[in-house]
């Protein structure tokens, strides 16, 4: 099902004051700006987690094929990573991408920088980031946010707030547990859209925590993420809608389709 191509992305129009997202499964997204800048966030376009899962008795066999190939990432403007775990920084996506001529810039927090270097990425290709640091790419500003990591092997997880110049802001939570410091520090940037981890395992928010965070930061649209690929790390996205409904916010729920464009604002 690798039917989405970079040509599709490049040709897709993005009106002024908006952005378009393509969900590639798990926490993988492409984001395009009105100026035509394309970010790849945590691209996981292989099935490399299956073997890792087998080592620890978990079924991490990818249930939905990647909607595009790693080689088709050629043409992105920034390879953006939240942390170093394999469903986010995937050697089997990075390797074919680089093998096809793909290169930086990469944006990554500290331990992910080390992992990138161990995978052969050159120092000069990498921009290190940390919570509150902003990086500008054309008409996009990418600000890393605080996130609560899963385990001691990677304590420098981040999420990202990505803002379009004179346009909306989207908040990617990354993998994180709920913490009121996240709510406080993200809310001041008034994100319009929240892309929320909801799997509820590995110290990540479940649907109730994601709904609560979405309410606290007052996102107008709340999109479930990181629930779809692996049998032993799955969640029903409708449970996010249920929890938003309890808070009187069911109308903010949107579920994305793999490989299909989602534009925000929706009616421009
Ligand atoms: Fe993850």
Structural class: alpha/beta
CATH superfamily: Ribonuclease Z/Hydroxyacylglutathione hydrolase-like
At CATH level 3, the topology is: Metallo-beta-lactamase, Chain A
Ligands and ions found: fe (ii) ion
| Count of folded domains | 1
Radius of gyration: 17 Å
What overall form do the CA principal axes indicate? globular
Total helical segments: 7
Order of helices and strands: HEEEHEHEHEEEEEHEHEHE
User: Can you summarize the main beta sheet?
Assistant: 7 strands, mixed
Strand order of the largest sheet: 6-5-4-3-2-1-13
Portion of residues in helices?
A: 10-25%
Instruction: Tell me the number of strands.
Output: 13
Give the termini distance in whole angstroms.
29 Å
Q: What is the CATH architecture annotation?
A: 4-Layer Sandwich
Q: What do the pLDDT scores average to?
A: 97
Structure commentary:
By secondary structure, this protein is an alpha/beta fold. It has one domain (6-255): 4-Layer Sandwich (Metallo-beta-lactamase, Chain A), CATH 3.60.15. It contains seven helices and 13 strands. The protein has helices at residues 6-11, 49-55, 91-99, 110-118, 180-187, 207-217, 238-246, and strands spanning 19-25, 28-32, 38-41, 78-80, 106-108, 126-128, 134-137, 140-146, 158-164, 169-172, 193-197, 221-225, 261-264. Helix 2 (49-55) links the parallel strand 3 (38-41) and strand 4. Helix 5 (180-187) packs parallel to helix 6 and helix 6 (207-217) packs across helix 7. The radius of gyration is 17 Å and the shape is globular. The relative contact order is 0.16.
